[in-house]
Design goal:
single chain, alpha/beta, TIM Barrel, Rossmann fold, 9-stranded parallel β-sheet, 30% helix, globular, disordered N terminus
């Protein structure tokens, strides 16, 4: 694997939006799908909508190189020149997101494989193994060609490497991946003896005599070695990043002043890549997000994704590289967005740190797998609600241009840890129904409903700025990370740890002496046995911490509290009746709480409300239920922009409780003096000086 860059070796580049006025607005542009008359109409429509940035050439390899060595740049030259003339900046892609058919026919060895040996063939996209040297050589060759041709083009603002790397093939089990995995393990452990110790290979006669004997966790008669599985997850994330790094470094060598990124998928569903480890390698973080039509609270999932992206970006502004104007094509039932929803979605991302709003795609395709995926220009054309909404959004983003570069502040942190996500969901565990993101999102939603803006941070984050720190199901914990959590409580923070946390070290070795292992002394709780519940089985939990009475399911623990640890909620029935379910312990100037079960929404909501009050992190501007309020701040702290997003069908108002909202509303230009009216389904943004 490649050596990661250090801050000292990172070149100085210009800002991707240095030549834009205000916020970025645009999307994926695929002129190669259309005849000349449509391309000319596109320019007129882009001016009407106010588009100022486009991603170009993402899936263009087979168009640029229809046969090996036969290159056609005419259409792309023309596109770059036209966009520059129209004042539109370009995030130019490496065109490598899907290899052309001639390449996979000539080199079928580059195709990826599943754990059972199934080969994933050409015909869709991403039909390549990122570790295969032949594919890597071809991808680097195409990247070099594009960089050399457009290095000095005035429209070039940003390099867009590949596309959604790892989206369809997050884990490849090909021979090339196996060889790279062995090299990765040799670098990680140094010797096969160290690997045997880390993997616990004395169990089931798995001891290795050579790295050459090691395979990825292929389909096997029964459970594969758990540390082998966890290491393969780590390796796979690194291998995908390594692919990005090779292409990025090629671009940097040719165009050192042009920033480079790739579009991540930082959502509750993107288990494949540890994006916190990717972040230092991106000149600006970019993300794709699509709402799930079947989720009535999809706007909360959107907020989660935006906050996670901001966390990956280390609090810096980021780019919303893709979302949809209306329906998508890949969900079981692809329902369009309701009136006003697209504007709310877009400005939610802006409220939570994005400096651009972009879509897949500019014009809705008439052929191909995504022809029913909505776009900025729909099949119905200009005479459509979607187009009118796009133009309205363009005006709104121009009005919000002054927000660019500002930051979101928070005093609450929710730890998101990819190794714990991978490790907690391995097989042969106490419950195969435990899902890591279940607790992460449950806690996020509880804080969202209380109006608390929350930073999503990695396990190794500096916690000094936070008064409330929540660690949901943080299964894998290093000694250093456990010490940081304890220090936060000692300093005065309220720290909350939930079930199946602190259980193993980074080798997936159990921390002996009783659960929750790494956090046992901090919490003043010792668990003898996990007591998972069967499907449909519930227990009652009673106590002031859960609002008096709550229901729990999935998970309980046979625990006891140490002296000085308060049992603030206990199981009221079931096999563990009377045992602690929620505990609280004074630690230094702070508090450490343990939640040993999965509470229902009401119980978790009541608990979260107490924690927010104890930590003093309540919303600075209270809002009615369903009205989202987020604030961005100028870097000097002199100005803030208050975003109020009404997700309900009823008119609402902020400031009626005496919490004054004063300033200028940017979307209407109205002065606000005390009370801010937010109509049903609307967004209001107030500049507060």
């Amino acid at each position: 694997m490649r050596r990661r860059t250090t801050p000292e070796s990172t070149p100085t580049h210009r800002a991707w939006n240095a030549d834009l006025v205000g916020l970025g607005f645009g999307g994926d542009y695929n002129p190669e799908q259309w005849p000349q008359d449509v391309r000319l109409e596109d320019l007129e429509l882009m001016r009407e909508a106010g588009v100022n940035v486009l991603s170009v050439a993402i899936f263009s390899w087979a168009t640029i190189e229809p046969r090996e060595g036969e290159l056609d740049w005419t259409w792309l030259d023309e596109t770059m020149d036209r966009l520059h003339s129209a004042g539109i900046r370009v995030a130019l892609a490496t065109a490598t997101a899907s290899p052309p058919p001639w390449l996979t026919r000539k080199h079928p060895e580059i195709l990826p494989r599943l754990a059972d040996g199934t080969v994933l063939h050409q015909g869709g996209r991403q039909s390549y193994a990122v570790t295969h040297p032949v594919h890597r050589d071809y991808a680097l060759r195409m990247t070099t060609r594009i960089a050399e041709r457009y290095r000095d083009h005035p429209a070039l603002a940003l390099w867009h490497v590949d596309n959604e790397i790892g989206c369809h093939v997050p884990r490849d089990f090909s021979d090339a991946a196996a060889a790279d995995f062995r090299r990765w393990l040799a670098d990680r452990y140094g010797s096969v003896d160290a690997l045997n110790e880390a993997w616990g290979t004395a169990f089931w006669s798995q001891r290795y005599g050579s790295f050459d004997d090691v395979l990825p966790p292929l389909s096997a008669p029964t459970f594969a070695n758990p540390t082998q599985q966890l290491d393969f997850d780590r390796f796979s994330s690194d291998a995908l990043l390594d692919y990005y790094l090779d292409l990025r470094d090629t671009l940097r060598e040719i165009t050192p002043r042009v920033p480079v990124t790739t579009n991540l998928m930082a959502t509750a569903h993107s288990k494949g890549m540890d994006y916190f480890s990717w972040a230092p390698e991106l000149d600006v973080v970019a993300n794709d997000h699509y709402t799930m039509a079947a989720d009535p609270e999809r706007h909360v999932d959107l907020a989660f994704s935006a906050d996670l992206t901001r966390g990956v970006a280390g609090g810096e502004p980021w780019i919303l590289m893709e979302h949809s104007t209306s329906a998508v094509n890949w969900q079981p039932r692809n329902t369009p967005k309701v009136p006003g929803e697209m504007l709310r979605n877009s400005l939610q991302h802006v409220a939570r740190g994005s400096d651009a709003v972009m879509f897949f795609q500019w014009r809705q395709s008439k052929a191909g797998a995504e022809k029913f995926h909505s776009a900025m220009v729909p099949h119905a054309g200009r005479d459509s609600d979607v187009w009118r909404d796009v133009v309205t959004l363009g005006r709104a983003l121009r009005a919000l241009g002054e927000v660019r570069g500002s930051r979101v502040r928070s005093r609450a942190a929710l730890v998101v840890d990819w190794p714990s996500w991978w490790g907690s969901e391995l097989d042969s565990h106490p419950s195969q129904h435990l899902r890591y993101m279940d607790q992460v999102q449950a806690w996020y939603r509880a804080l969202w409903r209380l109006g608390v803006t929350t930073d999503l941070v990695p396990a190794g984050a500096d916690l000094d700025a936070y008064d409330l720190v929540v660690l949901p199901t943080t299964y894998v914990v290093s000694d250093a990370d456990a010490a940081r959590v304890a220090a936060a409580a000692e300093r005065g923070a309220t720290v909350v740890v939930t079930y199946f946390s602190g259980i193993v070290d980074p080798r997936d070795h159990v921390r002996l002496g009783g659960y929750p292992g790494a956090f046992r002394d901090l919490l003043g709780v010792r668990t003898e046995e996990f007591w998972p519940l069967q499907e449909g089985e519930t227990v009652r939990v009673t106590g002031k911490a859960v609002g008096g009475d709550a229901v729990a399911d999935l998970w309980t623990e046979k625990s006891r509290a140490a002296d000085g640890t308060e049992v603030v909620a206990a199981y009221a029935d079931g096999a563990l009746a009377g045992r602690p379910a929620v505990t609280r312990r004074e630690v230094g100037s702070g508090r450490a709480w343990y939640v040993a079960t999965r509470l229902d929404e009401a119980g978790l909501g009541a608990l979260a409300e107490q924690l927010v009050a104890e930590a003093g992190v309540a919303a600075d501007v209270p809002a009615p239920a369903g009205v989202e309020v987020v604030r961005r701040w100028s870097q000097d702290g002199a100005t803030s922009w208050l975003f109020a997003i009404n997700h309900t069908a009823a008119d609402a108002a902020l400031g009626t409780d005496g919490t004054l909202v004063t300033g200028t509303e940017l979307l209407t230009g109205d002065a606000v003096d005390g009370v801010l009216a937010v109509p049903a389904g609307a967004v209001r943004v107030v500049r507060v000086n």
